[in-house]
Amino acid sequence: MNVLMVLTSHDQLGDTGEKTGFWLEEFAAPYYELADAGATITLASPAGGQPPLDPRSDAPEAQTDATRRFRDDPDAQAALANTTKLIDVSAAPFDAVFYPGGHGPMWDMPDNATSIALIEAFVAADKPVAAVCHAPIALKNVRTTDGELLVKGRDVTGFSNSEEAAVGLTDVVPELLEDVLKADGGNYRKGDEDFAPYVVVDGKLVTGQNPASSTPAATKLLGLLRS
Fold this sequence. Notes:
Elements: E1 2-6, H1 24-36, E2 40-45, H2 65-71, H3 74-81, E3 84-85, E4 96-99, H4 105-108, H5 113-124, E5 129-132, E6 155-156, H6 161-166, H7 177-183, E7 187-188, E8 199-202, E9 205-208, H8 214-226
Parallel strand pairs: 1-2, 1-4, 2-3, 4-5, 5-9, 6-7
Antiparallel strand pairs: 8-9
């Protein structure tokens, strides 16, 4: 199994003067879930090199077994520090793609022509596409081979409006992910409890609602790869 993981290169949290980027657990948890299952993982980002880490995801209270494992894993750290430029990546060698979240993707993914074309290539080849938390924003302008928006009529999830309000960033993000998925015609679904694990699978599209959904989203992706 060859899996591509695409991380954000955006590090500014709107006009707040604060930093953002990818969320550590949303990278580390699926990284190890996939790697432990025997997957070969390639990391990419729009700018290449070291993607920016959201400092809030590095706080003591945000740590999990996966993030602690990453901090003790020099090989994984080296791989993350040397992501391939997205423009140099093709869907052809990979069996699936996984987009970790964090707030960064809200700025550099929805209109990223390279990312859009990449996801469309995975879809056209009938290969699984997975995204967790804020990363489903990367699906915004993706279309199927018949020209329809990818999420139209499909069950999807992602960071909810209520979760965005809970972290106090409703007026900071350029748009609300839940609203975007609904506007694109997606059948947006969310779990009964905010910040609890919740994953939706529709065909070969896997979406997870929040950081806690990272491992189960990767597990669902593995199920698709093995079926």
